[in-house]
Amino acid sequence: MNALTAIQPKLSLGDWLADLAVDALIDEADLSPKPGLVDRRGSGAHTDLHLGLMHASALALWPSFKAMAEAAQQRGEIALQLREDVGRIGREGEQEMLRVTGGVNTHRGAIWALGLLSTAAALDVNMLAPEQVALRAARLALLNDRAAPVTGDSHGAQVCRLYGVHGAREEAQLGFPAVIQQALPQLARSRAAGAGEQNARLDALLAIMTQLADTCVLYRAGMAGLTCMQSGARAVLAAGGCASLDGRRLLRDLERDMLRLRASPGGAADLLAATLFLDRLQHGLPAQLGSH
Ligand SMILES: CC(C)(COP(=O)(O)OP(=O)(O)OC[C@H]1O[C@@H](n2cnc3c(N)ncnc32)[C@H](O)[C@@H]1O)[C@@H](O)C(=O)NCCC(=O)NCCS
Ligand SMILES: Nc1ncnc2c1ncn2[C@@H]1O[C@H](COP(=O)(O)OP(=O)(O)OP(=O)(O)O)[C@@H](O)[C@H]1O
Question: Which Gene3D superfamilies match (predicted)?
């Protein structure tokens, strides 16, 4: 041990996972140019959201992610008690988000996805590969939280009924296929091709958009909006992705079309944050993680 390591503060597992989750949210918000979404350039298709609000909301969620990880450490297994702990902490997180944003939904879907993944990661730090963490999160999401309010009138629930698609709940229950099968492989391919980190992340977002039934898009722009999102994202990737000139031109076309339809792929954005979280997590625990 040298003088530097001796004075390094101990980091708990909950601290570390909450840091990763908040970093993922901030990196997602900052990533630009994202079609229809809030980014460094502006508010996309939103009138009530802006980058400062996304940052403030992300930071306000840190204690919730930490509390979910700690609940996982205390319970130690995938069981109804843990599912209900996490449900309660998630609902409290939503309340805190709404307090900080003055009632605007900045991160509802992200609390759900990253909350489950933080919990799943804390359950077994020896198995942090993306598929392993996503599988544990899915098993947790499949448990029925008895305290969850049965409303059925959320925007997501309404369009799931109307169009017969799977929303945020099912995406988690299936083990985040958009992240595991689309985004992470695309992120790796674009990095390997030398796209640069920002372009590789944009390509990962587009890979999610090619397939996802994003209920944010369906609610605002119907099936026409969803088709526009999926086919436009496919066209950008087929042209060589965001690092290519043709891909950039098609990305601009996609953005123009989505703004015209007021369509914003908020669900895809949440899953990009989940992708960035799992991507970092797989590098394993940091050295200064003390006993937890
Ligand atoms: C399951 C959740 C996401 C609610 O889903 P629902 O579709 O009913 O709600 P809503 O329309 O508000 O959408 C949630 C968000 O999910 C994201 N999303 C949209 N489509 C998708 C998709 N296909 N896949 C993943 N995420 C998506 C978007 O950001 C969207 O805003 C969750 O928030 C929940 O159960 N809330 C109830 C309170 C609770 O128990 N919270 C604890 C969570 S740990
Ligand atoms: N960079 C981003 N820009 C916009 N939305 C994002 C971004 N990142 C994540 N999201 C997600 O998008 C969702 C916000 O979408 P939306 O504004 O459609 O929700 P809403 O308030 O339910 O609907 P509406 O605004 O259409 O009435 C949040 O749940 C959030 O998790």
Answer: Triphosphoribosyl-dephospho-CoA protein (1.10.4200.10)
